[in-house]
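Q: For a teaching session next week I want to show students how multiple molecules come together into a single three-dimensional assembly. I've collected the sequence lines for a complex. Could you give me the predicted structure tokens for the whole thing so I can convert them for display?
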Amino acid sequence: MKKILNDPQNYVDEMLDGLVAAHPEIYAKPAHRIITRAGEKTKGKVGIVTGGGSGHLPVFTGYVGTGLLDGCAIGNVFASPSADQMAETIRAVDAGAGVLCLYGNYGGDVMNFDMAAEMVSFEDDIRTASHAVSDDVASAPRGEMEKRRGVAGMIYAFKIAGAAAERMADLDEVARLARKASGNVVSMGMAMTPCIIPQLGKASSVIGDDEMEMGMGIHGEPGTWRGPIKPADDILDEMFDTLQADRPLGKGDRVSVLVNSLGATPHEELYILYRRLAVRLSEIGVDVVMPLVGRYATSMEMTGASLSILRLDDELEDLLAAPANCAFWRV
Amino acid sequence: MEITSNELKAALARIAEHAGENREFLCQADAQLGDGDLGITVAEGFSACAKLDLSDDVGRAFFEMARTFQQVSSSSFGTLVATGLMAAAKALKDRTEFGPDEIAGLLAQARDAMLARGKSSLGEKTVLDGLDAQVHALEAERSGALMETAVTAARDTVEKFTQRPNQAGRARIFAEKSVGLPDPGQLALVVITEGLR
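A: Of course. Below is the structure for the complete assembly, covering every listed component.
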């Protein structure tokens, strides 16, 4: 294992300490493994809370910030935080207008957020709404959305819900927009080398030197096929065609696209993918608004990339373009 | 005899002791099909609950147990137990006691809440099959030897399901291997119920 760390047991906590030390104007850590925005809460603003396992920065914690999220409950690498931590985060961000729990669709996180919502309702009378983003088309067919995992596309839901909350929309409206953004985004990823969980010290799966795996999840969940590495254009084409088959785009559609590195893949290679994506989109007459290219949702040192496409309308485009600020994304 | 927060506290102490004794047994059963931490979740969860200074309001007392169980373990088994305790908390809010004849109904509510949260069904070889058997056995036996009835129902469930494959949770991945192995969650329910006696 080649990782920069001290004790693997302290991986998550030392990461959080560093994050808060580097960006004290953005992040605060009011309690163990809970990150909120720095500064005062805006009274009457809907709070947005996320949570999940560590190992995906900037997801989840990184997207706490103005025009984005209000708080995050942080688990061990690839492990859900507890319902109690989530409940504590909900309490920490509640400003009297209720709290939206917005996170990725993983069994443990869903169970724990549902439990947390029940706890704050019982004890604190805080109203909550909840949505688990499920944008990974490789993880289950469209007919089984409840089985699809949440991956990079969830940052669009964070951005759009966050912008609505910043404009003081009420809880039902913020939840509606989060669900709308989530319903409009699809993603597909591929990997070439796996990642290493610090406490295990070795990779959870092995991909051969000359192999890639299409559709692999951000925790190394099995994909749709494994085989020899293909050229960048072929990789992009397969990802794009899969997304097109799932949710077809047509002439005149407006989209935002995210070409995301899973960690180790450099910007250079992301732009090689983007070059082909631009051709494919222009061929069918789709307009691109605010393209994102970089590390937005990772799996530590995994080599690979994902493509997410968000279909826009006026309402979503307006919220996507609204100001936002965190350490990893500024609009 | 009505059950108050004092009886709950005494029951938690007995469960915690018995779960502590069976910690390794449950971990070993779990290690065959999962990550092998079930004994730790059950032993530490009840040990932490036994240390609570429970509220007199029994609904509130069950809430305190649910919260404590969650603090100790974020594993899905821990969340399921907490979900069952939370169902009892809601049913008993603002009361200082409840009767033995209410136990079957409370267990049924816990079972239903846990099924909903785990998005699972009966018959998948999980702890919920044991709980369901206890509900039916206790409905037939509203007074008298309730504890013996519940222990027998939990043990019979383990026996009945051992030769079947697991169809839920992480053990599902080992469906074939799980044939012939007792379900760790169902064993945990036996341990918890034995502790109640």
